[in-house]
Amino acid sequence: MFIISLTYIKPLEEVDVLLEEHVVYLKEQYDLGHFLASGRKVPRTGGMILARGVSREDIETIITLDPFYRHGVAKYEITEFSPTMTSDELEFLRE
User: Burial of 5 by CB count in 10 Å (0-12 exposed, 13-18 middle, 19+ buried)?
Assistant: First the structure.
């Protein structure tokens, strides 16, 4: 399981130009089963993605497909973790 933290390094005007393309990318990764949840940080300084089912190397490759990455508007931090406790609703995440 991975938490991917995106931090914008360009003005929001540059981010917003790529937003529609970024959403297409996210949907593709959901369809492939890689992403479980995603959303904006509050305040809007970047975003967070919860990913699973692949290796760290795969996550690093998947990130390079993101238009935000390709156009250099965000930097990425990947944190890997093994969920050992969850709510009943998220039991499927436990290892």
Answer: middle
